[in-house]
Amino acid sequence: MLDKIVVQKKREVQSLPNTFHEKEYKKNSLYDAIAVPVNPLGIIAEVKKASPSKGILVEEFDPLSIAKTYEQLPVEAISVLTDQQFFQGHPDYLTKIKENVNLPILRKDFIIHEKQVKESKEMGADAILLIAAILEGSQLKEYYEMAHSMDLDVLIEVHHEQELEKVLSVVNPRLIGVNNRNLNTFETSLDTTKKLAPYIPKETLFISESGVKTSEDVNFLRHHTHINGLLVGEAFMVESDKRSMLRGWFETGVETSEYST
Ligand SMILES: O=C(O)c1ccccc1NCC(=O)[C@H](O)[C@H](O)COP(=O)(O)O
After folding, report:
1. Which end of the chain is more exposed for a tag (fewer CB within 10 A), N or C?
2. What does UniProt give as the signal peptide span (predicted)?
3. What pLDDT score does 104 carry?
4. ipTM over 0.90
5. Known active-site residue 53
6. Distance between CA atoms of 84 and 112, rounded to whole angstroms?
7. Active-site residue, 194 included
């Protein structure tokens, strides 16, 4: 699946312009929001209509209204899927949300070319995702530095130790996301975050992405790891009472964390 997505992205990149116009948006820092969260963990809530693994998640999809709902909750940031082909997202969703919602906005897409970094800035993103699985070390470094020079935060996503090693050999990432979803089989396992936790540098903010749905999931991650945040899509999208769900995640808390270095 990841291969198919990359093939499609290469096509899309060809039709992107060579120049982009930076608009003046107020920057909301994803890094700062996760570093000092309102919740016990920083929550990045995703605006996600559909996915290759689950198909359509919600029939009546109004991205701005979802983002406005998130803004009323105690969440730290919003992730917006801008991929059209596989996730039924759109770049315009991100721009509209940026113009109307005062939270850091992460552009969630499959960035494989520098033009997409510039496009993200033009769209109004505060942060971009770089997926180690689809980038060479040299590209990771180039796009990471380019993004920072444009005042974009970067969340670098990894799935296993080799990808993490590749990332750490080229940059000192401020934010790392461990994606619990195997991008080939779509299966999610929170053990992915648990296994990688000992290797995430202490000075890096550490996000666990995908497959988080219940308070047991949240407690498992808090007990076994030192994560700073969670990126959650499906659970928020399908839940009508998002506030209660979020409250429930932190109600019991974790008495002791097993995690130690
Ligand atoms: O969500 C998918 O099915 C998917 C498939 C292939 C590549 C990426 C995919 N998702 C992107 C994401 O990383 C998630 O939308 C995000 O982490 C939230 O995950 P979840 O809470 O499980 O919806």
Report:
1. C
2. none
3. 98
4. yes
5. no
6. 16
7. no
Beta strand ranges found along the chain (DSSP E): 42-47, 50-51, 55-56, 77-81, 105-108, 127-131, 153-158, 175-179, 205-209, 229-232
DSSP state of 25: -
- For residue 86 and ligand 1, the question of a CB distance below 6 A is answered with no
Q: With a 6 A CB cut-off, is 231 part of the ligand 1 pocket?
A: yes
- The tokens for 195 are 């296994």
Q: Is 137 in the pocket of ligand 1 (CB under 6 A)?
A: no
- For 160-175, the pLDDT digits (tens) are 999 999 999 999 999 9
Torsion of CA 165, 171, 175, 176, to 10 degrees: -20
107 burial class (0-12, 13-18, 19+ CB within 10 angstroms)?
buried
- Label residue 195 exposed, middle or buried (CB < 10 Å: 0-12, 13-18, 19+): middle
With CA atoms as reference, report the closest residue to 9 among 92, 117, 97, 141: 117
Other C-beta atoms within 10 Å of 164: how many? 20
Å from CA of 213 to ligand 1 middle: 13
Class of domain 28-251: alpha beta
